[in-house]
Amino acid sequence: MSAKSIQKNIAIRQLWERLFIIIGLLSLLVGIVSLIALIADLAMDGFPRLSWQFFTSFPGRKPEQAGILSAWVGTILVMLVSAIVSIPIGIASAIYLEEYAPKNWVADLIEINVTNLAGIPSIIYGLLALGLFVQQLDLGESILTAGLTLSLLVLPIIIVTTREAIRAIPNSIREAAYALGASKWQTVWDHVLPYSFGSILTGVIIGLARAVGETAPLITIGALTFIAFLPDSPLKSEFPYLSFNWLKAPFTVMPIQMFNWVSRPEPEFQLNAAAAGLVLIVITLGMNGIAIYLRYKFRQNIKW
Question: Which residue range or ranges hold the ABC transmembrane type-1 domain (predicted)?
Answer without folding.
Answer: 72-291
